[in-house]
Amino acid sequence: MKQDNLEKCKSVIDGDMDAIKWLFMKYQPKMFFFCNEFFHNDSLSKDLVQDSFVAFLEDHYKIKDPKCVVSYLFGILRNRCLKEVRAQAIRNRFTNIDLLNLQEMELSNWPSDDNILDRIFSDELVSGYRKAVEGLSDQCRRIISLSREEGMKYCEIAEKLNISQRTVENEVYRGLKVIKQSLKGFIPILLLFIIL
Questions:
Q1: Which of 73, 77, 84, 132 qualifies as a cystine partner to 182, CB 3.0-4.6 A?
Q2: Where are the beta strands (DSSP E) in 58-117?
Q3: How far apart are CA 36 and CA 14, in angstroms?
Q4: Domain 3-116 has CATH 1.10.1740
Q5: pLDDT at residue 74 greater than cutoff 60
Q6: Where are the domains of the chain?
């Protein structure tokens, strides 16, 4: 955590309203985006984020380490989301028990550190990407690697591999289509990483 952020977190623990406002302004959009990607409901997401901040304000003085301020805030959000998942399941009389189990599993696996949103499913995402790339043909895998990992332009790839630029374009299109399909379940998380 940067030193100035650490100082602001110390001030949050001490109840400094300017520091609390800073915390809200910095993390409210990220928290809302996550909730909304999870529940697809603006009003519910706003309520969950607001409830999380209210609960945080009631207990912020219990935090001993300024490095834990953000983790504590996101822990509250996680618990609010879990509570809402369970409440929705009860309201729906557990008609979609698989979705309930999946959502609970996702929320239960949040890491409890300062970079919580940056780390959500990162291992699974990297593993899923690698598995999708491994499933491509040798030529397609090589072209995707040159294009995406080495940053080469299509014309450079075509020249290097002694193939037409059109072939490169087609292989990139096919490869990305396969990768996108393989990572379909990670799309909300990918959007979150892009925004953050």
A1: 132
A2: none
A3: 31
A4: yes
A5: yes
A6: 3-116, 124-188
Dig out the tokens for 45 from the structure: 């997401």
Dist. CA 93–CA 138, nearest whole Å: 49
- State yes or no: pLDDT of 114 exceeds 70: no
Which pLDDT score, from 0 to 100, does residue 192 have? 42
Given a contact cutoff of 8 angstroms between Cβ atoms, the answer to whether 52 and 38 are in contact is no
CATH architecture type of domain 124-188 = Orthogonal Bundle (1.10)
Residue 151's CB is within 10 A of a number of other CB atoms, namely 8
Q: Which long-range contacts (CB under 8 A, 24 or more apart) does 48-53 make?
A: 48/77, 48/80, 48/81, 48/84, 49/77, 51/80, 52/76, 52/77, 52/80, 53/24, 53/28
Residue 94 DSSP one-character state? T
Distance CA 5, CA 27 (A): 12
The number of CA neighbours under 13 Å toward the Cβ of 1 is: 19
Q: Find out whether 172 and 137 touch, Cβ atoms under 8 Å.
A: no
